[in-house]
Amino acid sequence: MKKPHRTLPRNRLLIPGLLTVLPFITIAQETSVAPIEGEPIRLSQFVVTSDTAVGYRSLDSISGTNTRISLRDLPQSITVFNEEFLRDTGANSLMESVAFSASTSVNSTNQFNRVTFAIRGYESQTLRDGFSWFLGNDAYNVERVEVVKGPAAVLYGSSQPGGFVNTISKRPLRDARASVRATVGSYSKRRAEIDVNRPIVGDKLLFRFLAAYDHFDTHRDFENTENIWINPVVTWIPFDKVNLTVRWERNQHRHVPVNGLPINNPQTAWVDVPISWNNAGPAVFEDMDVDAYNADLQVEINERISFRNQTTLVKQDREELRRAINRLGVSGAPNDGRSLAAAINYGYERRESFSNKAELVIEFGNGSAWENKTLIGTQYNDSFVRQVGPLRIPGFTTGELTHDVFTLNRPFEQYY
Fold first, then answer.
1. E-assigned strands of 257-370?
2. Rounded distance, CA 10 to CA 204, Å?
3. Is the preceding omega at residue 262 within 30 degrees of 0, hence cis?
4. Across 118-122, 187-191, 281-285, least confident range
5. Which long-range contacts (C-beta less than 8 Å, at least 24 apart) are formed by 243-247?
6. Does residue 91 have a pLDDT over 50?
7. What band does 312 get if pLDDT is binned at 50, 70 and 90?
8. Residue 293 half-sphere exposure toward CB, CA atoms < 13 A
9. In terms of DSSP bridges, do strands 163-169 and 125-128 run parallel, antiparallel, or are they unpaired?
10. Whose CA is closest to 151, among 138, 136, 162, 142?
11. Which of 144, 310, 355, 401 is found 20 to 30 A from 411 (Cα to Cα)?
12. Cβ proximity of 413 and 389 under 8 Å
């Protein structure tokens, strides 16, 4: 039988013309680190690095204005967790790093390793390099995490007044380096990370390869989660003031979920089962495969004008087979007010998202008494979702997955 398909309408958002004009006045001269000899190093307007950080204290940010600017010149409250902080605290996920931010808490999590936060009581956006992100929130390829508090719809479109969390991904470097990290723990916890950076053609072509593997079980029977991440990145610098960074990131997520008995009153049990009981069984699954492609072109037209264009394409395939206990007479469960039967739900979702953002930064000022930055930009978003289900499959059996019937000790209504 052909599975029914439901196609959601395309949702297009086009923000033409002027995105924002952001003036910033600097009265005092900034302290900067310059080489002893030669021309001063001029950092890109669109890139922040850990080179200017002093230990855990970062001096600049890019999330507040979409351009690199000193934190002391920003009116917003921004918390920056740089690479050294993430490494020393052993943060493996976005949730573990943002936990150190004041007035920020986890709002919700789901089975696909994604998490949303509440900032100042409002649900917030989670971004990667300024774009909405479908992949899991692992920190294996994160350079820094910036928590911006306060409204920012003028820069990032629809957003909550509480703020947002933006992760800055790692980029290729000019020097060769490599690192390997491994972690083991209880409940079969196994994790490995690799980070290899190599210049391919001098300072003109740079390559960085990042990958991670993570597996863990829980105290529940059968429940386990496995993630594989791969992220090769290439930066091409054909001219001193032009660079193009292209990255591909893949996340393969496999999860056997947990589904316990629907006990409303924790002091009474409907059936006598151990705490490790998992009604879902070993044959159910929640799987997701995500591929993300990103191209980032940066051009310094002159000392006062810079241009950036970012293009991102994300493709996500999600499939799940879940087992749920219900009170209906499925699989022959009698409708006697005290019997429960399990049903199988199947669902599939295909999601694609395309975004393109172009920005022009113009600087004014005399370089000592005052400075002003004006950001002009446009962003285009296009998304498509195709869904199947959820479909209820009565009488379904596969492997060790069966439709058990549970009989309560007393009628159903007495548990409320």
1. 285-300, 305-326, 339-365
2. 40
3. no
4. 281-285
5. 243/44, 243/297, 243/298, 244/295, 244/296, 244/297, 244/298, 245/171, 245/172, 245/294, 245/295, 245/296, 245/298, 246/294, 246/295, 246/296, 247/169, 247/292, 247/293, 247/294
6. yes
7. very high
8. 5
9. parallel
10. 162
11. 401
12. no
Specify the residue for token string 């774009």.
Answer: 131
CA pseudo-torsion sign 42, 48, 54, 58: positive
**b or e along 336-369 (b: 16 or more beta carbons within 10 Å of the residue's beta carbon)?**
eebbbbbbbbbebbbbebbbbbbbbbebeeeeee
Encoded tokens for 126: 């989670």
Q: Rounded distance, CA 318 to CA 114, Å? A: 13
Query: Using CA atoms, how far apart are residues 284 and 393, in angstroms rounded to an integer?
Result: 13
Q: Checking DSSP bridges between strand 115-119 and strand 104-109, what pairing results, if any?
A: antiparallel
Distance CA 205, CA 234 (A): 7
**Confidence (pTM):** 0.76
DSSP 193-245: EEEEEEEEETTTEEEEEEEEEEEEE-SSSS-EEEEEEEEEEEEEEEETTEEEE
Q: What is the mean predicted confidence (pLDDT) over 215-240?
A: 93
The residue type of 123 is E
What the block records as the tokens of 223 is: 């429940």
Please, are residues 347 and 387 in contact by the beta-carbon 8 Å criterion?
yes
